[in-house]
Fold this sequence. Notes:
With 119 residues, chain A is an all-beta fold. Chain A has strands at residues 3-6, 10-12, 18-25, 33-39, 45-52, 58-60, 68-73, 78-83, 92-99, 108-109, 113-117. Chain A contains no helices and eleven strands.
Amino acid sequence: QVQLVQSGAEVKKPGASVKVSCKASGYTFTSYGISWVRQAPGQGLEWMGWISAYNGNTNYAQKLQGRVTMTTDTSTSTAYMELRSLRSDDTAVYYCARDPDYYGDFDYWGQGTLVTVSS
Amino acid sequence: EIVLTQSPATLSLSPGERATLSCRASQSVSSYLAWYQQKPGQAPRLLIYDASNRATGIPARFSGSGSGTDFTLTISSLEPEDFAVYYCQQRSTLSTFGPGTKVDIK
């Protein structure tokens, strides 16, 4: 069965960086993209960006350009999302999702990783 | 950026009633629109993709319609487990989500 398992919760200080992992299993990793979506407490969903697990191509949401980097390691079927220069409004649950259709129709999701940014 | 607007913000209904949720895009997204359901403490679940196609395992009481800028998610007869927040998402130009519609128990 398809599973996306994310790394555990993080607490970071403003200005720091965080790197969240997402390990995929149950399907051919390089046949799908991975999108990252975040959700601030009590708020809606925000698409952060996409990476092709096939060739590493990326597309990021404009508001995060320059602060976010998405990568994959095909040898371990793991995707990573690094966010730099953290601010308090980056506090959110971060989800990875399997992306079969370029930026949409996310059919499997990770369990979410809470990132708290606080001094 | 394509902006999605959902209405109403909250829909208060009883089990067995019909729910009609709306999603409007600031410009045409063709049929590149999906709907998700999210319950507290859970990841979203894909319900509908490409405006009208039910995802695997989604009950037939969920249906989607529309194209261009106006879309509708209909739940024909609400079950107790359907009370949740529903989001639309476009993938015509990168991706954006709507703000959500909460369906709660009247």
